[in-house]
């Protein structure tokens, strides 16, 4: 684990402070933190300020109010930003490159066509599986844009309600976005809590599958009854503008990668990270292969290997030139700049909270209230999500606040805290969430219909995620 990602509040001295009596400074930093979060919310919601600027301003406000020396405040913020971007930022970039080649090579379409070729029976379940696979390397928004034409084409062919197929796909993308690295939110929480990526990934997959089932195909059947729209009322004309022929195939100047190569490329980093986690649990550190597995399973190395593999399987192997591949890599970075910098500013905000003593004060409250880091993290993530509409801001803020309380937990329990926070960050999506409006417009729904379908689905994910992580907490 990169030592820069270790929160400053993870040492024994901080743990002792958490168990000391409440002080006037604790009251001060809690009040300042609440005001700072309210300031960030107001800047984002009321003034429509970019999240990076809002988090930076909020960090300076909290730092001054918490009593950090003015000469040290900028350094505190910069340290937090650098620690997160030094690791998480690289992973976001590599994930975006992989996702871009997956989409533009036709690999994603190959997966979709293969799974949808099984007939109409069980179509919602296969749609959830498609979204689950595609959602591993892709941001939610990118995956949604890719899948919308496919969803609508499937709705038109099967004459099924749009929500019956749409909700399972949305659930698959959303769960992966909140639960599974290398998505930016989970990675930021892993960094803040000093958790292990491989263990978090393994437990995240365990929690993700039943969560997608309940929030996707199961809830989709009820959602289709509540909002019985079909292809004629959804899609925003995407099918007409899409370049697919009647069979759903893309008209490309290059050939598609095969289904097997596509799956192997997408899952390569996941397999490498899982092998690393398994080696840590079951293999002796003295084994000759142990250091090699640790190296190959490092998230940066695993994703780099996948990108290099994709350069062939999704690039030169399907007819692209190296210049075209390089251009696509460059294009992949444009949509992620904003999200990456928000994650960095969130790391700076976290560091200011830690250095100012907010984490210690919150830890005292949690200890007094007998709240576990898992439950406290979930509650804070829900509150910040509802207030700001940003799952990423919710994850970064909640993980930074509970870091001192979680610093003495085992690697398994740390991973579960990350997953609980990720689940809470998805709850109650409403009008201040960009994803809410994307879903509303793509499916041609009213605000009320979107609340009854999408918002309920996101809340189901949050609640099921909390229940599953709590069960695993007791069992592991």
How many β-strand runs?
Answer: 0
pLDDT under 50 segments (min length 5)? Answer: 1-12, 235-253
Please give the alpha-carbon distance between the first and last residues.
Answer: 22 Å
The percentage of residues in β strands lies in under 5%
Helix content: over 70%
Mean pLDDT: 79
- Could you say which overall geometry the principal axes of the C-alpha atoms support? globular
What composes the largest sheet? none
Question: What is the count of distinct domains?
Answer: 1
Radius of gyration: 22 Å
The structure class reads mainly alpha
Number of helices: 22
Q: H/E element string?
A: HHHHHHHHHHHHHHHHHHHHHH
Subcellular location: Cell membrane
Protein name: Gluconate transporter
Pfam family, one: GntP_permease
Membrane topology: Multi-pass membrane protein
Tell me what you see in this structure.
With 476 residues, this protein is an all-alpha fold. The protein is globular, with a radius of gyration of 22 Å. It contains 22 helices and no strands. 76% of the residues lie in helices and 0% in strands. The model is unreliable at 1-12 and 235-253 (pLDDT under 50). The longest helix is centred in the first third of the chain and has 35 residues, at 70-104. The protein has one domain (23-475). Helix 1 packs across helix 17 (358-369), helix 8 crosses helix 22 and helix 18 packs antiparallel against helix 19 (391-406). InterPro entries: Glcn_transporter (IPR003474). It is found in: Cell membrane. The chain crosses the membrane at residues 29-46, 83-103, 123-155, 162-180, 200-219, 259-279, 299-320, 332-349, 413-439, 451-475.
């Amino acid at each position: 684990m990169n030592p820069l990602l270790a929160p400053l509040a993870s040492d024994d001295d901080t743990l002792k402070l958490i168990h000391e009596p409440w002080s006037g400074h604790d009251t001060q930093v809690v009040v300042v933190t609440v005001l700072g979060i309210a300031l960030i919310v107001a800047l984002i919601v009321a003034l429509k300020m970019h999240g990076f600027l809002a988090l930076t301003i909020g960090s300076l406000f909290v730092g001054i109010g918490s009593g950090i020396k003015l000469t040290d405040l900028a350094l505190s913020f910069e340290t937090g930003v650098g620690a997160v971007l030094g690791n998480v930022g690289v992973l976001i970039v590599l994930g975006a490159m992989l996702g871009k080649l997956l989409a533009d090579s036709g690999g994603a379409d190959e997966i979709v066509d293969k799974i949808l070729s099984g007939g109409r029976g069980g179509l919602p379940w296969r749609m959830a599986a498609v979204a689950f696979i595609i959602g591993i390397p892709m941001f939610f928004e990118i995956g949604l844009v890719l899948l919308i034409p496919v969803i609508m084409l499937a709705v038109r062919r099967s004459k099924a309600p749009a929500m019956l197929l749409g909700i399972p796909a949305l659930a698959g993308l959303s769960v992966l976005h909140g639960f599974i690295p290398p998505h930016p939110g989970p990675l930021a929480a892993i960094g803040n809590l000093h958790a292990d990526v491989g263990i978090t990934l393994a437990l995240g997959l365990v929690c993700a599958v039943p969560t997608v089932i309940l929030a996707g195909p199961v809830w989709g059947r009820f959602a289709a009854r509540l909002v019985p729209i079909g292809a004629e009322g959804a899609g925003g004309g995407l099918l007409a503008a899409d370049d697919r022929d009647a069979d759903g195939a893309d008209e490309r100047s290059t050939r598609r990668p095969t289904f097997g190569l596509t799956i192997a490329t997408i899952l390569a980093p996941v397999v490498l990270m899982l092998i690393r986690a398994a080696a840590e649990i079951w293999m002796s550190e003295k084994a000759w292969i142990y250091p090699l597995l640790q190296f190959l399973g490092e998230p940066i190395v695993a994703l780099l290997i996948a990108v290099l593999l994709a350069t062939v399987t999704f690039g030169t192997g399907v007819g692209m030139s190296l210049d075209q591949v390089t251009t696509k890599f460059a294009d992949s970075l444009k949509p992620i700049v904003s999200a990456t910098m928000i994650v960095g500013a969130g790391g700076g905000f976290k560091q200011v909270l830690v250095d100012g003593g907010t984490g210690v004060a919150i830890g005292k409250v949690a200890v007094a209230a007998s709240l576990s880091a898992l439950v406290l993290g979930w509650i804070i993530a829900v509150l910040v999500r509802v207030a700001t509409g940003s799952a990423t801001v919710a994850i970064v803020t909640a993980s930074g606040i509970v870091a001192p309380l979680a610093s003495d937990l085992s690697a398994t329990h740390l991973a579960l805290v990350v997953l609980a926070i990720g689940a809470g960050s998805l709850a109650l999506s409403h009008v201040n969430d960009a994803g809410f409006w994307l879903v509303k417009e793509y499916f041609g729904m009213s605000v009320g219909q979107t609340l009854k379908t999408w918002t309920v689905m996101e809340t189901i994910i949050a609640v099921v995620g909390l229940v599953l992580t709590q069960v695993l907490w007791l069992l592991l």
